[in-house]
């Protein structure tokens, strides 16, 4: 419903709509109403939804933002910086390790003074991996030179996203701004919110996009951006940047006051709850502060003068306001969802203490507690315990334990978990049924495999009980590949569905050694593991069986963000296998577009609507890219052709053990996000091959061989016979989308003919 008309007239508050939305939805709403020029983005939980919502809005024609899907967060930061350098209005959203990946780009943007707005949906930084919310990523932002606003509620997310742009572009500031809010607590939970009915109100508030700066936008007025500086100049640059940061604190108050008149919502520098006469108080960021306010009311009823301090801005740090708020407080507990290891307290604890040092009359006892890491819930009882610690310090006149963690528990040796599955090694994975020999005349491997039923006795590498979706093709595909691998393996899983669903502490589905690292660095990590094993073996410090094989499992976009690492590993030619399961998207974060997503296919960031019809460009041919790096063996495969895949696995092992790097790509189904029926998994894979979308071939020592030719076997089918099985592609079968379908079919035919030419001409 709309805000009361009389209230609008009396207070000159712009008309607003009341609804229930999440923080991510409100961040996207604010961005759409502002109508930014550019958003460079890369999906990562829990900020992914911001781009998804904007893509859906764009499909409906609700904004004109150019959404650019990057190859990783580092790339997204580069896209944003390049756009900001032209004076375009730029927006982004990220979390956790994604923020860390772009970290080196952020001081560049601040140091060259180009405004933009980025939502940091806070989340635990791995390792170990945890996708839920704390502030370990936010604390790395403190020294980037970005202004940082903190939003406790979805309402604040919306409001601060609007204020942030006005602050960033202010002539006294000209700095990029982060709006930080809690992952899942604020990003996904729906709350009552008001938003402006007419986006012109928002656009009038932020004003026209400034052009009076040295932007790279007028080719008749050339500029040099980011020129190298010596120390004499750099200190002046950083001094000016420092002054701009402190100016941002003043500008924030001006913008907040102006926004209060427009919206009826006032965001002071500090959100103070019953702090007027407080004896004890908690200092909390974001959603935890909201959770603690009811406890303040409860304590007040008992006669305890309690209060809450929660900053709305932490860069610049509001030292003056904190001194004023704490001048009569006897004990303060600073609760933080992150630590500064070895510093006897996290970052904001020390900044609060530093602020109080400037007031020689202040006697506040400051306690520090690290809590809520990895999204651990913070309940009213926890807030009450915090207050009790502060009350105890007030009564004693000192803090018995100034710094500690809260919510951790000691381990109990008597409750040590026993393995649920029995690890296996050595002879358990040796059948002796697979023979691989080199044909000296052809310089190609000859492989003999038994009937597949003879390999069924070979143990699985992964135990049952993992958390994959029904019909997921990852594990049938991987297990079939591993049937062709004899002996022990060391496997590295990059982040993705295969990793997340098989390792949930304290349990693991892996029967052999498994290592995890992030999307962007899996190949490099495993190359280090391989070389360390070999060097330790050379020195006689460990024993490693001769047939041990090192395999990296990647997928869910891992060969987008991890492409640089993979190519570097390939060029160094380490003795390992890179195996990509291709499910045509970033499925572990909710089916976002990958560069392997085909043209026209629908994902959560390539929506289908009146203004767009799925992914706008063709899929990446990763196998051909890896073949161009001249590694000894490249192959494609799928479980629909099991003998073909097992043979290629055996070849892959031989080359990885004897020559160097191998890359393999197996197409697998994702019924959930492909919107297909579980029972059609094998059928869809077979149709993908027979339509020539996913040809089966190998590149052995630079020579291309098609291992299954649907044309020669008279089994080739139209592309539409594959597309009809998947809900994500049914729109392509409609007459109005014939142009897209024809473009897709033309590209598939071109790639197939090129592959045939390579197979017929060894020098190609």
Topology:
Blueprint: H1 5-11, E1 16-21, H2 23-34, E2 38-41, H3 48-59, E3 66-69, H4 73-84, E4 90-94, H5 96-101, H6 106-111, E5 117-122, H7 136-140, E6 147-151, H8 154-169, E7 177-182, E8 191-196, H9 199-206, H10 231-263, E9 270-273, E10 280-283, H11 287-301, E11 306-311, E12 313-315, H12 319-325, E13 331-336, H13 347-357, E14 365-370, H14 380-396, E15 403-405, E16 435-439, E17 444-448, H15 474-483, E18 489-494, H16 497-500, E19 503-504, E20 507-508, E21 514-517, H17 522-538, E22 549-555, H18 558-561, H19 563-572, E23 577-582, H20 622-627, E24 633-638, H21 642-658, E25 662-667, H22 671-674, H23 681-690, E26 696-700, E27 703-708, H24 719-723, H25 738-760
Parallel strand pairs: 2-3, 2-4, 4-5, 5-7, 6-7, 10-11, 10-13, 13-14, 14-15, 18-21, 18-22, 22-23, 23-25, 24-25
Antiparallel strand pairs: 1-8, 6-12, 9-11, 16-17, 19-20, 24-26, 26-27
Helix pairs in contact: 2-3, 2-8, 2-9, 8-10, 11-14, 12-13, 15-21, 17-19
Question: Which short descriptors sum up this protein?
Answer:
764 residues; alpha/beta; eight-stranded mixed sheet; seven-stranded mixed sheet; 27 strands; globular
Please tell me about this protein's structure.
With 764 residues, the protein is α/β, with parallel strands linked by helices. It contains 25 helices and 27 strands. The protein has an 8-stranded mixed beta sheet, with helices on both faces. A 7-stranded mixed beta sheet has the order 3-2-4-5-7-6-12, sandwiched between helices. Helix 8 (154-169) packs across helix 10 (231-263) and helix 12 packs across helix 13. The longest helix has 33 residues, at 231-263. The model has no long low-confidence stretch (mean pLDDT 95).
